[in-house]
């Protein structure tokens, strides 16, 4: 397939690996932020083909995985209400709450529906004015513009029966929190290419300068990732830092400014709780006052629902680069895709799911 196969060529992979072996001299720890990148690295076997000096750790770049348990429980409470049509992308349906997941609520009679766009949820609200339609708005900066557009469109249509449960998180504040931690082991980052396609990469410049780390915006195919790793290691070996863009076919310095404008029109930056990690200042998006009528947490009074994480799950340590899935005592035993303790075991971008599926 044009524009895909050429980034999976086995001969080119070996050439990049050889080039990497020639440039690396010291041990380095690099974090790939995005869960999609993690899956490519594990599925393709690249992680085990790298020189032993290059150690990869997996970051908190799976939006499903970092959605806090209490927010899942709020979603479950909303989905169980008889007047609500609860809509979501499919990757949230098996994410465990304290007692059950959205599929269990659906099996018990809740009206839970998979949609492929937040605008599908808006159309449902138009079609069913007698019902309340709630959309589970999960994601990083990648999905925020479309979710913002759904709220914006619903307001212009005058819909009073549409709302969102907002669970948006932002990448740069999470990276800053990781780098500021006293036990930080990260020496370089592979930044998520799809996030940067929306936001550009200017906001990473002060981060790289402050913490003196290289950050390379990277795509998702094997050769993208190998080139990104090579670029990061080359900077590290020279004692240099800064931001470089490997994903030039999709990412520009300033990103998609139309998408950014609709995000900032509808959302404002707030503190956000990250599952397994805790609160990170200025790391999430919530609805502005002008759109408060579309806030499902406030509309249905579920914001007071709290929850405690399983003490067996070490997802927070994994997403901070302090451990890997096999380091968890519950991995593959008490925690599996059939009986998950945490979201990383069932998310299509979760590190635990990648290791369970491709390295079991």
UniProtKB/TrEMBL annotation:
The keyword Acyltransferase does not apply. This is Hydrogenase formation protein HypD. Keywords: Iron, Metal-binding. GO terms for biological process: protein maturation. The lineage of its organism: Bacteria, Bacillati, Chloroflexota, Chloroflexia, Chloroflexales. InterPro entries: Hyd_form_HypD (IPR002780), HypD_1 (IPR042243), HypD_2_sf (IPR042244). The keyword Thylakoid does not apply. NCBIfam families: hypD. Signal peptide: none annotated. It holds the Pfam family HypD. Belongs to the HypD family. One of its GO terms (molecular function) is carbon monoxide binding. It comes from Candidatus Viridilinea mediisalina.
């Amino acid at each position: 397939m044009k524009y895909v196969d050429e980034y999976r060529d086995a001969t080119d992979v070996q050439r990049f690996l050889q080039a990497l072996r020639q440039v690396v001299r010291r041990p380095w720890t690099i974090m790939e932020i995005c869960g999609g990148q993690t899956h490519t690295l594990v599925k393709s076997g690249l992680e085990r083909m790298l020189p032993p000096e290059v150690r990869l750790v997996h970051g908190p770049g799976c939006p499903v995985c970092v959605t806090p348990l209490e927010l899942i429980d709020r979603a479950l409470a909303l989905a169980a209400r008889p007047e609500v049509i609860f809509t979501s992308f499919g990757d949230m349906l098996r994410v465990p709450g304290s007692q059950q997941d959205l599929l269990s609520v659906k099996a018990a009679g809740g009206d839970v529906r998979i949609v492929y766009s937040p605008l599908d949820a808006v159309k449902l609200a138009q079609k069913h004015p007698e019902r309340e339609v709630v959309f589970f708005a999960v994601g990083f900066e990648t999905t925020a513009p479309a979710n913002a557009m759904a709220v914006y469109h619903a307001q212009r249509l005058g819909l009073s029966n549409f709302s969102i449960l907002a669970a948006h998180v932002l990448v740069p504040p999470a990276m800053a929190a990781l780098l500021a931690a006293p036990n930080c082991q990260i020496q370089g980052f592979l930044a998520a290419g799809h996030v940067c396609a929306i936001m550009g990469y200017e906001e990473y410049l002060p981060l790289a300068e402050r913490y003196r780390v290289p950050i390379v915006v990277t795509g998702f195919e094997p050769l993208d990732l190998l080139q990104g790793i090579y670029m990061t290691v080359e900077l590290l070996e020279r004692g240099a830092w800064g931001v470089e863009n490997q994903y030039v076919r999709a990412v520009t310095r300033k990103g998609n400014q139309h998408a950014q404008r609709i995000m900032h029109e509808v959302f404002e930056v707030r503190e956000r709780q990250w599952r397994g990690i805790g609160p990170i200042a200025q790391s999430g998006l919530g609805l502005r006052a002008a759109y408060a009528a579309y806030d499902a947490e406030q509309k249905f009074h579920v914001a007071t629902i709290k929850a405690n994480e399983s003490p067996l799950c070490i997802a927070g340590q994994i997403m901070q680069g302090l451990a890997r899935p096999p380091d968890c005592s519950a991995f593959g035993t008490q925690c599996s895709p059939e009986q998950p303790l945490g979201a990383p075991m069932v998310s299509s971008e979760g590190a635990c799911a990648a290791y369970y599926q491709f390295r079991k």
